[in-house]
Each structure stands twice: as C-alpha cells, then as structure tokens.
Design a protein that fits this description.
119 residues; alpha/beta
C-alpha cells in the first residue's frame, strides 16, 4: 500500500499543506517497504485542471490512498476514477503525525467534495 500526503516540504517531518492540487510536494509512504520518498508536485503550476493532473501523477505512481486537507469536485472525481481513496487530515500537523492518525483510524474518509476548487 502506498499513501501520498500533501506537504510543504519534501520530507516526512514537514508540515502538511493546506492544499491538494497545488501543494508543493507529495510525501509518499510505502507501507510494504516501510519507507518515505517525496516528489515535487509538477501539477501545482497548471493554469487549470491541477487537481486532475495531480491525481494522474499519483495514479501513475500506484498510490492507493491520499491524505489531504480538502478536495474540490474535479479532484475527487479523478481520485475515484483511479480508485484512490482519500482521507481528510487536520491542519498544522506534520506528515508523520497525519500518517499516524490514518493508521489509528482517526481520519474521516472524503466521500464528497469539501471545497469548490480554486486557483
């Protein structure tokens, strides 16, 4: 299982981002390897459609779950198309802290859009 977390920096000790599609980085936790990697979010500078582009990047990496602050309707639709589940984290935490919250089953699954989407 691979989990992607929206992050301000490229490591697991970073604060989580308050955006999904326009986050700076995605920190990826590989549960089988028990390891962290990170990628720069190249979709963040897209003029439009950043949510779908970010989801495509994550889908191509074989991500199973995303931990995010909120999701617009198009991003949620794209995640559903890639069969990637999404869970909402509280702000002002670190990547590692929200990952622990996920494994403790303390994060709500996002089944409906939580924002209108924005640029």
């Amino acid at each position: 299982m691979k989990i992607a977390i929206s992050s301000l920096e490229n490591n697991e000790n970073s604060k989580v981002s308050d955006r999904f599609a326009r986050t700076e980085y995605f920190v990826i936790y590989d549960h089988e390897a028990l390891s962290f990697t990170s990628i720069e979010n190249t979709a963040k500078s897209a003029g439009s459609g950043a949510g779908g582009k970010a989801v495509k990047i994550l889908g191509d990496l074989g991500i199973d779950i995303v931990l995010v602050p909120e999701l617009g309707p198009k991003a949620l639709e794209a995640l559903e198309a890639f069969e990637i589940k999404s869970y909402q984290y509280p702000r002002e935490k670190t990547v590692r802290e929200v990952l622990y919250l996920y494994f403790e089953k303390k994060l709500p699954e996002l089944l409906i859009s939580t924002s209108k989407g924005r640029h």
